[in-house]
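User: My collaborator sent over this chain with a note saying "see what the structure looks like." That's all I know about it. Can you take a look?
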Amino acid sequence: MTKNVTNRRGMIKGAAVAAGALSAPMIATAQTTTTLRFQSTWPAKDIFHEYANDFATKVNAMASGKLKIEVLPAGSVVPAFQLLDAVNKGTLDGGHGVLAYHYGKNTALALWGSGPAFGMDPNMVLAWHNYGGGKALLEEIYKSLNIDVTSYVYGPMPTQPLGWFKKPISKVEDLKGLKFRTVGLAIDVFKELGTAVNPLPGGEIVPALDRGLIDAAEFNNASSDRILGFPDVVKNCMLQSFHQSGEQFEILFNKEKLNSLPAELRSIIDYAVQAASADMSWKAIQRNSQDYMELKAQKINFYKTPDAILRAQLAAWDKVTAAKAAENPLFAKVMESQRAFAQRAGAWQNDYMVDFKMAWNHYFRAPAKKA
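Assistant: Without extra context I'll predict from the sequence alone. Here is the result:
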């Protein structure tokens, strides 16, 4: 009898304790937010800065308040071409740009954007980077420069125009003597073609054109070119070029800062890069095509770059890259890796892919009238 009473008392006491716990007010634990300060290499109004913000938005949404990336436009903390050093030193936690902007540190870095890439389109170059050895080579280059960053290459860009010119370019000789803006290894290619190159950052190009400091320039695409004001100062745009036909964007993180984040947040960043890469590709098709039509409606003159100039670019590229490879072992190593991947992947793509232009012409281009 005594034993049963004791058990009942224990049960009653336990229930009372439990009830008290349930009725006690919940004490919320304050969640801390890690904020990372980013800078892009683009003016605030450019679609490229929008791409940087798109990446940050994806990270911020998935991190549920645990991580916040704040993106500033070019020049907010450092000039565009100093982004890599700023991220390396920790002046910035990260940034958004292109590898060609680091060309002065090692010429091999421009191979992720400049040149014909052995016939690979932008998405194939990105495939080479992620699955064909490019990522390890990029890490090797940065290590050789004592640069301690984590680089995410993403966002394959559509083929860039030859550029904007005061007069249409009909032959290679028309390029000779022109004061021209470009970046990366395209600097050497256009010099080989006879131009005097000035590698200005994006926000400085149109003012230089307007003041006559340069005669012609390329930047990237219909949307960026329109937003930056090219059609306000020049009326002729030459489409198609091999100088930057397979370029990618780069998202940079200070490695120490990135590694200090919990594994969960690092995974969010990894997958946000992949999501942003796909999203950027789709948005580029939508916006670039819209802006191209708007520019045509504004009576901008668009011309296809003559094949003779395209072939001259390839010949100039071969000459430039042979010289760079001879003086820079890492340059030669990247070129060899790209060539091997392009030979296999290009053969597959060229054999498998149908000619989409044939179908487009079938539906939208009226057949030529018979005489």
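A starting point for your reply to your collaborator: Confidence is low (pLDDT under 50) at residues 1-9, 11-28.
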